[in-house]
Amino acid sequence: MKKAIYPGSFDPVTEGHMDVIRRACGFFDKLYVAVMVNVDKHTLFTCEERVDMLRKVTAEFGNVEVVHHDGLLADFAESLGVETIVKGIRNMSDFDIEYQMALINSRLNRKLDTIFFPSKSEYLFLSSTAVRSVAGTGGDITGFVPEAIKQTVLDKIAGIRIREER
Ligand code: PNS
After folding, report:
1. Are 19 and 119 in contact (CB under 8 A)?
2. Cα–Cα distance measured from residue 154 to residue 28, given in angstroms and rounded to the nearest whole number
3. Can you tell me which atom of ligand 1 is nearest the CA of 9?
4. Would you call 128 a catalytic residue per the annotation?
5. How many CB atoms within 10 Å of residue 42?
6. How many degrees, rounded to 5, is the angle at CA 27 between CA 21 and CA 124?
7. Ligand 1, closest atom to CA 10?
8. Topology classification of domain 3-124
9. Residue 24 CB-density burial (10 A; 0-12 exposed, 13-18 middle, 19+ buried)
């Protein structure tokens, strides 16, 4: 069985992530979409919220399983019997970061390899940061995130703004 893991912060999942999931699904019998910890980022959504949103928007894919782990990706992949990491790349700065991560992961677990999916042109501008920024300042995030989680994202941000104004 060909298995792969697509790790990320997914804070929140965007249409760019969904495009990678859709395309990777076709290459593998099983795709784990893994909510992991990025030590350089403070997330807006809790791990449970990010997992719930991902489960909702990937329910239509029979070969996707959403998981989470707060340790090393290299160890987690080993425990799942996975030898392929999937990542999306939008530009050269993504490539620099992702290439370095691929090297580190294969150093930590010699069996691991990384496959990059180049972003479709319509998602080049899109990031979770952009979603949080646009939604946080009252902008329209239609087409930025899957429709099924749009209101969840807006409600979360509205809740935070109300708390901040108090
Ligand atoms: O969506 P992100 O924030 O770019 O994803 C980065 C992520 C979470 C995949 C990366 O930080 C990661 O793999 N975290 C798990 C801890 C780990 O294995 N670190 C070493 C890899 S360089």
Report:
1. yes
2. 33
3. 1
4. yes
5. 6
6. 40
7. 1
8. Rossmann fold (3.40.50)
9. buried
